[in-house]
Automatic annotation (TrEMBL), chain A:
The lineage of its organism: Bacteria, Bacillati, Actinomycetota, Actinomycetes, Micrococcales. One of its GO terms (biological process) is transmembrane transport. Keywords: Cell membrane, Membrane, Transmembrane, Transmembrane helix, Transport. It is found in: Cell membrane. It comes from Zhihengliuella halotolerans. This is Peptide/nickel transport system permease protein/oligopeptide transport system permease protein. The keyword Transport applies.
From TrEMBL, chain B:
One of its GO terms (cellular component) is periplasmic space. CDD domains: PBP2_NikA_DppA_OppA_like. It comes from Zhihengliuella halotolerans. InterPro entries: Peptide/Ni-bd, SBP_5, SBP_5_dom. It comes from the Bacteria. Coiled coil: none annotated. One of its GO terms (molecular function) is peptide transmembrane transporter activity. This is Peptide/nickel transport system substrate-binding protein/oligopeptide transport system substrate-binding protein. Residues 1-24 form the signal peptide.
Length: 307, 528
């Protein structure tokens, strides 16, 4: 198990370098001059522009710029933005908010998705299953932002249960509505996966054996069926937590949650490469870590993986 | 005044329906009867006035030498006792005695001089840098070859004693007192230089409101400063101002419909319609002083577009009236001059090629030798694309020439404009930093503010502009500006399009004010 874990950690390094390289290259290729965005309509004097360009290595060729960046990154230096503020500080200021939103949504999704999925799986082919199916199809079909805007208007403005925008009320009050919107949207997929997986397993030979040897229905379902049905579900859950960080961007914009999404959008608009790459690198790191956790969990559930 | 200049307006997205209107101040009063008004803000890069020239928070914090008094609508001395000059080139400034910063330290002539020197130093890269271009000694602080400046002070600024200073300009400019009402000319206390990082987070200034707290990405709170000595016309009615931070105007609007927000400014056109039906007419505040103009700027360096007849043909092929009433639903008026009607130099119908006449347009096009190419119209992709599309369609249909739209990201468009690499006409929005014809017509003066877009140059115009700027008599000066405009219009480097109406949104508690075309949050009255 240890060797397996070390191997997986080492594999992360080339992935991280590759990913930052691609993102850096894309930001570099984006049209526009970041210094031009600094002061609006009245351009800064030539001298100042020259000094800024030098300070940020903007006149260097791409590979040299990337070299400066990755060298700093390995020393834990994410660079500074054009207003001299450390990028790491900007990210850390907002990352907890995005995490709080994504995690809350993830937990809600886990609960909703598993309940509906297991219910549908166990009642396979009966009315309850059909009802669950219709429910999931409807929420998979409606675009997320429509649900978000609808919920915001109804619960935030009409009923006034929560603030429609902002996080001034703090966790959990301010996060419940946006997280629930994200959760319902994503729970549909989870429910479908769980249901299908469970139905497959319930048909398996070894379950017939389990029943035949006289195990109680509860033992059969919880001890045997679910544990095996959960293998694909765990993969999905782990990766979807990382995916939810990305999905939070739209929800953050609608509910005015000061997370990483708003920062990312504004820095892309201003072509602030160091911030864009910093955020993207951070998200890549998070994704890799979750991937690793999923693989390790896999190893626990399914001993064959460790070999 | 103090409006950040923008060639491109912000984009908009449409939201769902909502109703209901209460006031955030209700919450405030339950906490002990504080007259609180909240306004829409975005997370600022800086709240130091010199570093963000359009900052509403900077304006509330700072009492400038000159300011517009809301009650008289006149520019009056505020922190200054007087600002005078014989020749409009050397200015004597006398400060009011006994004025202090929020922390009790005295506001002296040096508070202004040291702030101006720092702002004018190019290597500091403060946004307000360009404000000092007319000051003697600016060039020495901003060497064009990118080397470090040999001096740290503006040679044109001289501190006489604690309450007196003189300013010498490169050339006479009667608008100088107006310049002294803008964010970059605010004073800075000594503490701003001792610990700049701390000052950035919690600025101390001398204005009607003092800084209370900045909860990043959440809100900025300002409190009324009890010791402010200026007239009520320079301040506002709220005891507490809360800048709630939003990532865009849509959630701010939604928050307002839920009764959690009191004031929004620069309301985009599609939201105006929605707001008047959802929030009611009384929630809409129409700014009376028109300060903005949309034009189609035509770079002089594009040979194919150089003919004045061709430009006039393009101008006459646009049915401004139709677009204004249908697409813009009356929230804009057709423009017939290179300046908005609120300025003293405005002459009705100055642009005779601004009337819709497709027949005459076609004749002009013919006499200009026709146009075989494609007219490219560049614009900021975040600006009103529907409007640009409508203008393009009019030109294409009525003139029979090919028109291609080319929307670009703000950063890319600025770069192309500053490097004079535009491929065609530029759809732009212009606004003033203070109310003066110079703020508009400098775009057509060689090397003037905003001139980089068209690169238009005309010796006679330059001479008239210089003369107008030096003229201290307002009427005489306006006549000279009008003369300059008449010359520019013959070449039509920019085609006037529309004068957009500015709107603000308010709750029952907020009484918004038109401060010479600017809607300043901190000047709002409190009505609950």
């Amino acid at each position: 198990m240890l060797g397996y874990s070390v191997r997986r950690v080492l594999q992360m390094i080339p992935v991280l370098i590759g990913a930052t390289f691609i993102i850096y290259a894309l930001t570099f290729l984006m049209p526009g001059d970041p210094v031009a965005a600094l002061t609006g309509e009245r351009p800064l004097p030539e001298s100042t522009v020259a000094q800024i360009r030098r300070a940020y290595h903007l006149d260097d060729p791409f590979l040299v710029q990337y070299g400066h960046y990755i060298f700093g990154l390995f020393r834990g230096d994410f660079g500074i933005d054009f207003f001299g503020r450390p990028v790491l500080g900007l990210i850390l200021e907002r990352l907890p908010t995005t995490f709080a939103l994504a995690l809350t949504a993830w937990v809600l999704k886990l609960f909703i998705g598993l309940v509906i999925g297991v219910y549908g799986g166990l009642r396979h082919g009966r009315a309850g299953d059909h009802f669950a199916l219709v429910f999931t199809v409807v929420f998979m079909g409606i675009p997320g932002f429509v649900i978000a805007l609808g919920a915001q208007t109804y619960f935030g403005v009409h009923l006034g249960w929560v603030d429609p925008a902002g996080t001034r009320a703090g966790w959990p009050i301010a996060f419940i509505l946006p997280a629930l919107v994200m959760a319902i949207e994503a729970a549909a997929g989870l429910a479908r996966l769980t249901r299908t997986s469970l139905v497959d397993v319930l048909r398996a030979e070894y379950l017939r054996t389990a029943r035949a040897k006289g195990l109680s229905p509860q033992r059969v379902v919880w001890g045997h069926a679910l544990r095996n049905a959960m293998i694909p579900v765990v993969t999905y859950l782990g990766l979807s937590l990382a995916g939810m960080l990305g999905g939070a961007v739209i929800i953050e914009a609608i509910f005015n949650i000061p997370g990483i999404g708003g920062l990312l959008v504004s820095s892309i608009n201003n072509k602030e490469g160091t911030v864009v790459v910093g955020i993207a690198t951070m998200l890549v790191l998070v994704y890799l870590v979750f991937n690793l956790l999923v693989d390790l969990t896999y190893g626990i559930i399914d001993p064959r993986v460790r070999l | 005044m103090k409006r950040p200049r923008k060639l491109a307006a912000a984009a908009t997205v449409v939201l769902l329906t909502a109703t209901g209107c209460a006031s955030a101040a209700d919450e405030g009063s339950s906490e002990g009867g504080v007259a609180e008004l909240s306004f829409m803000a975005t997370e600022p890069k800086s709240i130091v006035p010199q570093k963000d020239i359009g900052s509403q928070i900077g304006m509330a914090l700072c009492a400038n030498l000159m300011e517009v008094n809301v009650e008289t609508q006149e520019l009056e001395p505020l922190a200054a006792e007087s600002v005078t000059s014989e020749d409009a080139q050397t200015w004597d400034i006398t400060l009011r005695d006994g004025w202090t910063f929020h922390d009790g330290t005295a506001v002296t002539a040096d508070s202004f001089a040291s702030a101006w020197n720092a702002t004018a130093t190019g290597s500091n890269a403060w946004q307000g840098n360009g404000t000092f271009v007319a000051f003697e000694g600016y060039d020495e602080l901003n060497p064009s070859d990118g080397s470090a400046p040999a001096t740290e002070t503006l040679s044109g600024v001289e501190v006489v004693d604690d309450t007196h200073l003189t300013v010498t300009l490169n050339a006479p400019n009667a608008d100088f007192p107006k310049l002294l009402s803008t964010n970059p000319t605010c004073p800075l206390p000594a503490s701003a230089f001792e610990d700049p990082a701390a000052y950035d987070e919690a600025p101390v200034s001398n204005g009607p409101y003092k800084f209370a707290s900045w909860d990043h990405n959440q809100q900025i709170v300002l409190e009324k400063w009890e010791d402010f000595q200026g007239d009520p016309g320079f301040s506002g009615g709220a005891d507490r101002l809360v800048g709630k931070i939003y990532t865009s105007i849509d959630p701010a609007y939604t928050d307002m419909t839920a009764g959690n927000l009191d004031m929004i400014r620069n309301v985009p056109a599609p939201m105006v319609e929605k707001a008047s039906s959802q929030l009611g007419e009384e929630a809409l505040f129409e700014v009376q002083t028109a300060s903005k103009q949309q034009t189609l700027q035509i770079p002089d360096y594009i040979e194919e577009l150089k003919s004045p007849d061709l430009r006039k043909a393009i101008s006459m092929s646009i049915d401004r009236e139709a677009i204004a009433t249908s697409l813009l639903k009356g929230h804009s008026t057709p423009s017939d001059s290179l300046v908005p009607p609120s300025l003293a130099s405005y002459r009705e119908g100055a642009c005779d090629a601004c009337t819709f006449d497709p027949e005459e347009a076609k004749k002009l096009l013919e006499s200009a030798g026709g146009f075989d190419g494609t007219l490219v119209i560049e614009s900021n992709s975040a600006s009103e694309q529907q409007l640009v599309q409508a203008v393009a369609t009019q030109i294409q249909d009525n003139l029979g020439i090919k028109v291609k739209l080319s929307p670009k990201l703000g950063t890319e468009l600025s770069e192309r404009r500053n490097n004079q690499e535009l491929e065609g006409a530029l759809f732009g929005l212009w606004g003033w930093a203070y109310m003066s014809p110079d703020q508009y017509l400098s775009q057509y003066e060689t090397g003037g503010d905003g001139n980089v877009a068209t690169g238009y140059s005309n010796e006679k115009v330059d001479a008239l502009m210089e003369q107008a700027r030096g003229e201290q008599d307002e009427q005489a000066s306006a006549d000279l500006y009008a003369e300059a405009e008449a010359l520019v219009i013959q070449d039509l480097p920019a085609i006037p399009l529309f004068i957009p109406t500015d709107y603000g949104l308010r709750s029952e508690c907020a009484e918004l004010n038109d401060v010479q075309g600017d809607l300043q949050y901190y000047r709002a009255g409190y009505a609950c």
